[in-house]
Amino acid sequence: MKTSIATVSVSGDLREKLEAIAAAGFDGIEIFEQDFITYDGSPRDVGNMIRDHGLEISLFQPFRDFEGLPEPLRAKAFDRAERKFDLMQELGTDLLLVCSSCHPQALGGIDRAAADFRELGERAAKRGLRIGYEALAWGRHVNDHRDAWEIVRRADHPAIGLILDSFHTLGRKLSPESIRAIPGDKILFVQMADAPAIEMDLLYWSRHFRNMPGEGDLDVVGFLRAVMAAGYAGPVSLEIFNDHFRGANTRQVAQDGYRSLIALMDDVRRAEPDLALGGLPELPARVKPTGVSFVEFASRGKEAAALGDLLGTLGFARAATHRNKDLTLWQQGEIRIVVNEEKEGHAAHAFNARGTTVCDLGLSVSSAQDTLTRATATGAEAFSQPLEIGELDIPAIRGLGGSVLHFVDSATGLDRVWEVEFDPIPGADTAGAGLTHIDHIAQTMSYEDMLSWTLFYTSIFEVTKSPMVDVIDPDGLVRSQVIESPGGAFRITLNGADTHRTLAGRFLAETFGASVQHLALATTDIFGTAARLAERGFAPLPISANYYDDLTARFDFPPGLLERMKAANVLYDRDEKGEFFQLYSGSFAGGLFFEILQRGSYAGYGAPNAPFRIAAQKRRLRPKGMPAR
Ligand SMILES: O=C(O)c1ccc(O)c(O)c1
Ligand SMILES: [Mg+2]
Predict the structure, then answer these.
(1) % of the chain residues with pLDDT over 70
(2) Where is the VOC domain (predicted)?
(3) Ligand 1 atom showing the smallest separation from residue 165 Cα
(4) Is residue 149 part of a domain?
(5) Which of 72, 107, 551, 601 would suit a FRET pair with 179, their CA atoms being 20 to 30 Å apart?
(6) Which ligand approaches the C-alpha of residue 97 most closely?
(7) Contact (Cβ atoms closer than 8 angstroms) between residue 160 and residue 117
(8) Do residues 567 and 459 both lie within one domain?
(9) pLDDT of 385-398, one tens digit each?
């Protein structure tokens, strides 16, 4: 299975596109006519430049409004095709994509179209070229792959075949199952695209909202399964028209594309084990995360002391120090927070760039090595630092935003790192204020990066993603999406900020693009924990009295509960499964904060409370006595 991508899918000029596509690992490209025309170089030079990047030209496209035309338009269409054949031969590609006609004068009729294609096939064959016919979802007469196939079948010419595009089939809610019956060698090319489930005009949806397989809501795996089951053996290509991608970082989009394609082909291979799908790298199945092993802050000096004070008021105990490095382990229940004050290495760089920041996350997984193998096979960069004697080699990769993700398992003893590399501090009370484990980690990013991050997690781990929800900040919108493992042992919330004026956007600006903005720590007794935190001098985020007045209007509470929540600045929500309580710390280090929650069987994240929490945080940011802007 060779990989390919249409040049329209990434930003930049043709040379920038090729560099990024080649660096990401693709075997070939579909050259979009527009990208060729806007480039200042002869077709031969362009062909050579593409091959110099180690890429094949899998296809040239699109050729529009060909079939079903009355004379003299018909003759003109053939002349146009001959000009494109010349160009293809100079470029060095043998396959042309013809998309179904949208021409106002195009006539219907399967036999008429088949006759046109037979003649085009004759002309193409003379030059050793091939033609693939694709049904656009909005084609004038042909907008269904089954009709396109019937035309190809009746054209009955060796140089004429079918091109399938997942968007045009799935976007129209057509079942891909009929593809299984098409002879595989008559399918000349396959384009893959996903899209978010939004009701809108098909053409507009396709040209602006397509995204990488796995980033949207279409059943792209079901589609490609049907194609492979038909016996298709050609390249699997991405053709993504997306407004954000057109303006985004070229390399990032190309890398995301490669990641999505490898994960997709692997899903198909697993779903159709009887098919021999050659040429795909062996990679382990998605790995199940079983929790968060540790969160590591880069900090130093006074900032580290302030962070330590805050951790102390939250009930954490200094539990151990590293034998070789300037690392302190703070622990409470199963929660481990490492404070790294090293002057060299990754954490030092993170601190120098951003101040106190979460520089590393340790995830507990079933197999650390499998996680590393799968992550690097899908394009992640392995990360390592020099080890001293007695230190464990914990597999790690670079996450997005420059952070590092470590994978810890018990099978190979990596979870013993605390005993192996650290000296315990005697008498540490790790029961603390009753915080038991990390419920979730909240990562903030610019909205444009959200699809990337979601794909990163969903392609490596066995997790599901929730629908995106809007969180209203007084100064803008933040979009939030949850990634969680089955059973919820591992949960990440991704928050995409549109502007620098939102709390999330401000955090990004102040920290130069850090990612972890808050850690949510679980207790089974929110009021008991709140009381113990108060004893330690913890100052919760004050919540307005109006919030509690509104709560009484929305919910019925047993006597006394509302007063207890109000006194402890506890926020409340409820779903069919249970009740949810949360309270927050103030912010530190450019906008980091902690959340403390009691969830029981409640499945959400308190989204209805987010606007009130954000408003409360913003009130505290404003200097005293300053009116609201
Ligand atoms: O939007 C279009 O016109 C268009 C062109 C070529 C394609 O392969 C396609 O899927 C869509
Ligand atoms: Mg297409």
Answers:
(1) 99
(2) 291-410, 437-586
(3) 10
(4) yes
(5) 107
(6) 1
(7) yes
(8) yes
(9) 889 888 999 999 99
All residues with CB under 5 Å from ion ligand 2: 165, 191, 239
Q: Establish whether 53 is an annotated binding residue.
A: no
Q: Are residues 385 and 467 in the same domain?
A: no
ipTM above 0.85, yes or no: yes
In this structure, the answer to whether residues 261 and 311 fall within a common structural domain is no
**321-343: average pLDDT:** 97
Does ligand 1 lie within 6 Å of residue 253's CB atom? no
Apex CA 510: angle with CA 504 and CA 514, to 5°?
Answer: 70
For 513-528, what is each residue's pLDDT tens digit?
778 999 999 999 999 9
Count the domains in the chain. 3
Residue 134, annotated as binding a ligand: yes
* Pair 423, 390: CB distance under 8 Å: no
* Any ligand 1 atom below 6 A from CB of 484: no
Q: For ligand 1, what atom is nearest to the CA of residue 207?
A: 1
Contact indicator for 408, 363 with CB cutoff of 8 Å: yes
Residues 331 and 439 in one domain: no
In a domain, 562, yes or no: yes
User: What's the gap in Å between 236 CA and the centre of ligand 2?
Assistant: 12
Q: Is the CB of 194 under 6 A from ligand 1?
A: no
Given pLDDT bands bounded at 50, 70 and 90, which one contains residue 321?
Answer: very high
Instruction: Give the residue, by CA position, lying nearest to ligand 1 atom 9.
Output: 136
Could you give the CA distance from residue 184 to residue 228 in angstroms, rounded to a whole number? 8
* Beta sheet of 317-322, edge-to-edge order: 396-398, 404-408, 357-365, 289-298, 335-340, 327-332, 317-322, 422-424
State if residue 62 touches ligand 1 by the CB under 6 angstroms criterion. Answer: yes
The answer to the question of residue 74 being in a domain is: yes
Q: Are residues 260 and 329 in the same domain?
A: no
Rg of the chain on CA atoms, in Å:
28
Q: Is the pLDDT of residue 111 over 70?
A: yes
**Per-residue pLDDT at 297 exceeds 70:** yes
